TrEMBL record, chains A, B:
Source organism of this protein record: Streptosporangium pseudovulgare
Keyword Flavoprotein attributed: yes
Family (UniProt): Belongs to the NtaA/SnaA/DszA monooxygenase family.
Name of the molecule in the record: Monooxygenase
Keyword Acetylation tagged: no
Amino acid sequence: MPTRTLHLNAFLMGVGHHEAAWRHPRTEPARLTDVRHYQQLARIAERGRLDSVFLADSLALQGDVRHNALGGLEPLTLLAALAAVTDHVGLIATVSTTYNEPFHVARKFASLDHISGGRAGWNIVTSAGEAEARNFGIERPAHADRYARAAEFLDVVTGLWDSWEDDAVVGDRLGGVYADAGRIHPLDHDGPHFRVRGPLNTSRPPQGHPLLVQAGSSEDGKDFAARYAEAVFTAQQTLADAQAFYTDLKGRLARYGRHPGDLLVLPGISPVIGSTEREARRLEQELQDLIIPAYGLAQLSHLVGIELTEDALDRPLPDVSAETEGAQSRRRLVIDLARRENLTVRQLLGRLAGGRGHRVLAGTPERIADEIQLWFENGAADGFNVMPPVLPGGLEDFVDHVVPELQIRGLFRREYEGRTLRDNYDLPRPASRRARPPAGERPDAADTVGSADAVVAS
Amino acid sequence: MPTRTLHLNAFLMGVGHHEAAWRHPRTEPARLTDVRHYQQLARIAERGRLDSVFLADSLALQGDVRHNALGGLEPLTLLAALAAVTDHVGLIATVSTTYNEPFHVARKFASLDHISGGRAGWNIVTSAGEAEARNFGIERPAHADRYARAAEFLDVVTGLWDSWEDDAVVGDRLGGVYADAGRIHPLDHDGPHFRVRGPLNTSRPPQGHPLLVQAGSSEDGKDFAARYAEAVFTAQQTLADAQAFYTDLKGRLARYGRHPGDLLVLPGISPVIGSTEREARRLEQELQDLIIPAYGLAQLSHLVGIELTEDALDRPLPDVSAETEGAQSRRRLVIDLARRENLTVRQLLGRLAGGRGHRVLAGTPERIADEIQLWFENGAADGFNVMPPVLPGGLEDFVDHVVPELQIRGLFRREYEGRTLRDNYDLPRPASRRARPPAGERPDAADTVGSADAVVAS
């Protein structure tokens, strides 16, 4: 087995990533809010020795619920329920830095990390959309402001995770000392966006820091990833684009004193799997035949910023030049795709229906393994964010047929080698920035948590 | 079995409610952040057919961590992990209305309610303490402001839970209609504290509304409970005080068009159980002998608002007249207790160590059942909030010895009769305030959720 190992994340989305998945006979849309569905998916991922499962999120009902299975579960509560039925697979939840407070986010991820024995990961998003802003009564912040807030948010959250040193809990029952208050530190953060005293009221997470994941592909997003993220999910349609993104992102790490191996690049791939090419194409066609054009048209109109009607379906995508709110890199990808392949709007909708701009690949397990290997060995990917078109069937197909092929080729683990998400991703456990100084240089009392603060009335 | 049934909630707190529990040989303080500990407790509660388990919370490290096992898990993530290993027991989490946004709270409880099959409850707190305010960078709001915000917060949260009608999801795969957009409504709330557009992005919870629980005993707190709460946790030391509280609270319900049976009053009780009175007293004494006076002194000083030192231990509680921040009703209870029983500060600390002002009752299972029956049958309680001094042992003792005694007396269920927390508490499922109007009076398009709002880039 080569020293560099492929990493695979299962991106779980309702009953599948294809927008018409809920209409396909292989799915049961009533399972959208059924925890047993997601527990089954997590167990399948673990059976396949996948690194992690991942839940996207937004803070508004987005998309036309008339024509898609929307309105599912909240990621952090759901992942805690998945932690209870799995032992190894990582658990990555999306949480916004724009509509949250860092104390809550630090605490919930610390808690999930304890609950899962060190398997929590945080996909950091800054929430571009107008709909989310309207659920929190604020004006949608500008792009740069969102990233400035996100950077300060990360400093606070990681500071809170470090507020308890690893060995703060002493547990001396006879001596009556539960914790060494000299190893629990206030944060005393006072910045433009947040004032947070700390310490956290949960001890340091098993991973030190839950894994930091990011998905923005704008310039600000890539710089943010280079500074903070340990894994990046990205949408890439071609090998050349993926290589360029990979090289760009890895090249930015040195600015922040980091090495190329400190961050994994994981492009999305939606594998439509058949035992023959023909069977794969048939499944793909079945799903395409279930598309409701009005649904995709509305999504596409919003993304490109012009109102597209059914009249536009069999014509090329009109010229779109104005910037729209958020998601610029996804917008650029979609326009480039339409132009490069000279697609009509209908054809473009078909290409987006499977993965919202992520790469869709229909074929046999061997063919899908070939593509994974090609990208992995040619500077385009450290692994993949696997987005099955239908769930659970598409994930079962991947685990039962593609994973064994990758194992045979020596690209993927046959057994888990550790217990934490960081172990799965071969990433180190961060030291605390408040690691204990040598005796004689101990912080003075003003820097420690001593006397009682308040009685908890309950 | 009488038509009026006793209700029992297991209040789970670390390794026990006694402040010295972590030092006692029957506990393992390292389990404070171990999910298996809490899963074991939830299973024990379910084995005893208890109505629910409950987790308190605060948003700061409160109390002196040198001398108590503090720094545990966040309630919502933890309860989701308990949902995964239980089938009937209710799951009640404390969440503050002062340091949260209603959209998040509505969504997380809706999610927990789906995950648990209708077993979620929300203990609503307004967070009186200074330490919590400092973790969120704001000034501590005044008492009345906290309750005004809480009331608006509740209106928004319940409105969001009602934003999807129960039958909004149609799931017509052939026709391509997932949901009837005419049955999903924006909230368009615009009030002094919140502007929230809605709808929620999670469908209506199985219980309609997760159960609403409250614990404040101030005048504002009691009015809030009478308006919104369906169960109230309260600290009461004497039968007379408990009867007065019960009568007062039930009497307030009519002002809000509610009936006495719409709200359950559940005083706290910390049962120290022995097979003989002597064995119970011995366990109580073992715990008292492990008390570290400095811990309780700091807690008590904070509560009453004067600095008490070890010199004060063997004297009566000094005169304390000034008001302090928050927790006024608990402060009054503690001062009354010291005066009524003419206690020294050391004796008072001993009385508070077991339940922070809640009633501690040491005795045989029969004696504890007697007291429960006495309060239940004499207008003081609809049930109890059971606070075992050590965990899991104290909960096992209660379930294995007190519960059977209550069952023999016909006071408590032998089997669960329903599936939801509302079923356990014999409380009705609320209708949606947006229940579907008859055909012909359907809301117009402006009041429904139609076209796509945004593409989710992920």
